[in-house]
């Protein structure tokens, strides 16, 4: 490929932000090319093991930063292939948050009310099932019973899962070989392909430059299918409009590396990163107490020992999703199945001083793996993450053949963030350590830092150019025709799983992207139905479209 290759719209990344933009623009008549850094995996490729080269290592990107590590998707379909398919909408109060800037961080045009029609549009395009108690796994039921015992409430979680196909195999993080998870591989992406979009896996975008005719040139490397450290040449594609959706850990790095060829970037590019305030706690359950305190038995002589039975998040406690509480005191607690491998390595020993990745005490709790219950906390943070100078290639310096790298993110939690973590930790302990039911330990500590599976806000939307890289239409300030539609655009922590909100904001951004393309001579229209042809969601958002256009 040479620089003479041209397309109307170049989309970087095929997760929620990229797939949604690619579908609508292709359906509207634009020539669309999607460049995806990772491989293109299908149902038959999703392995149930942790071997090098399995879907577990091929589809993930685990980047270690200074104070924060990011686990994300690295495949066609992005995070939708490796997430747990939990799809709640963000609480109303989230859009009024002030965070670290002391005033409303979200654009004035975006609220829960104005975003609801776009949520509806997503829900029409990605089948979402509101689970009930008949869908709940044993682990989820135990969490619900513990919440009830402690005077808290618990709720089944809405998910993008076809429950008629789900086998409760617990391998949701490595894709779904039974096609139960309604990832983008079954919704927006095949619809984009049907309208002529091209998807090119193993293409890692490095930077963007300008062309003489006012367009953009995207520079990429070909990545080896087996060893992601190996590059097989490079290429360029010219486009009139660029949609960046490489993820909140990679999109700002691409823009930082592009500054020499594009010109000065907004100050907020690579700043205000949020890990969605996330924390993981492991409870080591006392099997006798499970039977005596909660009155639970599986009917085969076992009280619990059930961590291999179930699926991803099925039950959450939302008692603290209360807008009347002070900021940094609001959070959700979600039962989460985290598989062996990462789970067993990163979990810490309750009561152990310092880091306990290994040693006698760690061996003892590993013997009781089936008595673990993992609780996922999503709190409010201060958007304190900052990206340093970009690495020579990609978003990280690769340490291994697949998956593992070291990136330029520095995250130093503020007292506000630490207070939020502490309050969530205390709530989990009060629920699960009550009456000796379990011992609880957080994964995060001063030595190893924090972890997030939902990176956000590194190129966020907003009204203030000083604190937001994008305007309220997701267009990069000072660089017309470049849009960011992934989790990087979300202004801050949401207290719940963010996929639904990322998707809704991407849907909302499409009319502005279509307008930008039309202004650059692309014959494209807006108004495609949902990928399956449904139109009620389209009717719901059409009255909102004029407000998203500049003219």
TrEMBL record:
Pfam families hit by this protein: DAO, GMC_oxred_C, GMC_oxred_N
Name the cofactor(s) required for activity, per the record: FAD
Q: Which SUPFAM superfamilies does the record match to this protein? A: FAD/NAD(P)-binding domain
EC code(s) of this entry: 1.1.3.6, 5.3.3.1
All residue ranges annotated as the FAD dependent oxidoreductase domain in the record: 8-41
**Domain Glucose-methanol-choline oxidoreductase N-terminal residues, every copy:** 66-271
InterPro entries xref list: Cholesterol_Oxidase, FAD-dep_OxRdtase, FAD/NAD-bd_sf, GMC_OxRdtase_N, GMC_OxRtase_C
Domain named Glucose-methanol-choline oxidoreductase C-terminal: which ranges?
A: 418-506
Keyword terms, alphabetized: Cholesterol metabolism, FAD, Flavoprotein, Isomerase, Lipid metabolism, Oxidoreductase, Steroid metabolism, Sterol metabolism
Q: Which PANTHER family does the UniProt entry name for this protein?
A: CHOLESTEROL OXIDASE (PTHR47470), FAD-DEPENDENT OXIDOREDUCTASE 2 FAD BINDING DOMAIN-CONTAINING PROTEIN (PTHR47470:SF1)
Tell me which family the UniProt entry assigns to this protein: Belongs to the GMC oxidoreductase family.
Q: Write down what this protein is called.
A: Cholesterol oxidase
**Species in which this protein is naturally found:** Sphaerisporangium corydalis
């Amino acid at each position: 490929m040479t620089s003479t290759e041209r397309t109307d719209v170049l989309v970087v990344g095929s997760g929620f932000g990229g797939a949604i933009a690619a579908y609508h623009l292709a359906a509207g008549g634009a020539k669309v090319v999607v460049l995806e850094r990772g491989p293109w995996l299908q149902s038959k490729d999703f392995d149930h093991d942790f071997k090098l080269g399995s879907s577990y290592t091929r589809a993930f990107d685990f980047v270690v930063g200074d104070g924060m590590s990011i686990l994300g998707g690295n495949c066609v379909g992005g995070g939708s292939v490796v997430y747990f398919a939990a799809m709640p909408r963000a609480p109303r109060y989230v859009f009024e948050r002030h965070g670290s800037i002391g005033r409303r961080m979200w654009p004035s045009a975006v609220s829960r009310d104005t975003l609801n029609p776009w949520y509806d549009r997503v829900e029409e395009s990605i089948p979402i099932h509101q689970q009930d108690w008949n869908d709940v796994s044993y682990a989820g039921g135990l969490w619900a019973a513990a919440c009830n015992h402690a005077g808290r409430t618990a709720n089944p979680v809405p998910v993008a899962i076809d429950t008629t196909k789900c086998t409760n195999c617990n391998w949701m993080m490595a894709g779904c070989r039974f096609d139960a998870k309604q990832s983008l591989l079954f919704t927006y992406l095949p619809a984009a392909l049907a309208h002529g979009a091209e998807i090119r896996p193993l293409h890692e975008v490095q930077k963007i430059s300008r062309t003489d005719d006012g367009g953009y040139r995207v520079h990429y490397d070909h990545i080896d299918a087996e060893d992601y450290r190996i590059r097989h040449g490079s290429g360029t594609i010219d486009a009139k409009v660029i949609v960046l959706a490489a993820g909140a850990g990679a999109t700002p790095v691409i823009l930082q590396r592009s500054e020499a060829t594009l010109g000065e970037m907004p100050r907020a590019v690579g700043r205000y990163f949020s890990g969605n305030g996330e924390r993981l706690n492991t409870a080591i359950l006392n099997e006798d107490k499970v039977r005596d305190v909660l009155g639970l038995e599986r009917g085969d002589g076992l009280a619990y020992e059930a961590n291999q039975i179930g699926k991803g998040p099925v039950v959450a406690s939302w008692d603290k999703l209360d807008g009347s509480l002070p900021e940094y005191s609001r959070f959700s607690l979600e039962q989460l199945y985290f598989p062996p491998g990462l789970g067993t390595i990163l979990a810490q020993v309750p009561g152990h001083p310092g880091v306990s990745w290994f040693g006698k005490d760690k061996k003892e709790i590993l013997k009781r793996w089936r008595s673990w219950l993992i609780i996922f906390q999503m709190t409010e943070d201060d958007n304190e993450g900052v990206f340093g100078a970009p690495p020579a290639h990609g978003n990280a310096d690769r340490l291994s053949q697949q998956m593992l790298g070291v990136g330029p993110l520095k995250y130093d939690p503020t007292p506000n963030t630490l207070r939020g973590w502490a309050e969530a930790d205390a709530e989990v302990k009060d629920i699960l350590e009550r009456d000796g039911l379990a011992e609880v330990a957080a994964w995060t500590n001063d030595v190893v830092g924090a972890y997030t599976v939902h990176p956000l806000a590194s190129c966020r939307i907003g009204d203030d150019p000083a604190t937001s890289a994008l305007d309220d239409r997701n267009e990069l300030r000072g660089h017309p025709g470049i849009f960011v539609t992934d989790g990087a655009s979300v202004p801050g922590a949401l207290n719940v799983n963010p996929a639904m909100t990322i998707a809704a904001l991407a849907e909302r951004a499409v009319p502005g992207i279509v307008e930008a393309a039309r202004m650059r001579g692309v014959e494209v229209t807006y108004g495609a139905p949902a990928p399956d042809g449904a139109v009620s969601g389209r009717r719901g958002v059409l009255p909102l479209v004029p407000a998203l256009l500049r003219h």
